Amino acid sequence: MTTQSVEQLDPNFANPREEKGLKYYDVSSFRIEGKGWQDTERFFDRLPAKARGFVPEPVWELSHYSAGMCIRFTTNSAVIEAEWALYSERLAMPHMPATGVSGLDLYVKMPDGKWRWAGAARPSQDGKFQESVVLNKGKDAKQEQQEYALFSLI
User: Fold this and answer.
1) Residue 147 confidence (pLDDT) above 90
2) For residues 128 and 131, what is the distance between their CA atoms, to the nearest angstrom?
3) Which residues pair with 105 in a beta bridge?
4) Sorting pLDDT into bands at 50, 70 and 90, what band is 140?
């Protein structure tokens, strides 16, 4: 059986940025789950651009948050690192901490098919939104392909 790399299967993955021994992919080339429309003002908006002015302003503002969106990918890496930029300078809300509003959650699909939380990337006050999630696979564990889901994309 011939194994093909993701770059061979999908040209969107052909030019990852490589840095610190990691490959960085632009998730806008991935299939985004939970995104209902493609004709949005910003890539991760939840409502179509034509909804502006037809929905109440508070609803329109909330549509800029990517809650409920995720990407799925497979990797054999022991480290997953993300870089992201936020729509708003406000990291938190009165009822939700910064990790819930501005952070990223990573889930791993286990061999039994169940999803398990693998870690979170937290935003920082200095405006640099880059964080690694080190996956505790054990020093002798095989680095097998596993499926992951990354939530809250902005």
Assistant:
1) no
2) 9
3) 120, 151
4) very low
Distance CA 112, CA 69 (A): 24
Q: Which of helix, strand or coil describes residue 137?
A: coil
Domain locations in the chain as residue ranges: 6-151
d(CA 36, CA 121): 25
Q: Where are the alpha helices (DSSP H) in 13-120?
A: 57-62, 98-102
d(CA 151, CA 60): 21
pTM confidence score: 0.71
**CATH number for the domain formed by residue range(s) 6-151:** 2.60.120.260
Which residue from 83, 84, 86, 82 is spatially nearest to 64, judged by alpha carbons? 86
Contacts of 91 (CB under 8 A, 6+ apart): 98, 101, 102, 123, 125
In degrees, rounded to 5, the angle at the alpha carbon of residue 53 between the alpha carbons of residues 40 and 88 is 55
d(CA 117, CA 112): 14
Cα separation, 150 vs 54, whole angstroms: 31
